[in-house]
Amino acid sequence: MNFSAFFLEAVVEDPNENYRLRKCTIYYYLEDDTLHILESRIANSGIPQGVFLKRHLVPKPGSIETYKSNDLNVGIDIEFYGRVFHIYDCDEFTRSFYAN
Question: Which of 22, 41, 71, 93 is most buried, judging by how many CB atoms fall within 10 Å of its CB?
Answer without folding.
Answer: 22
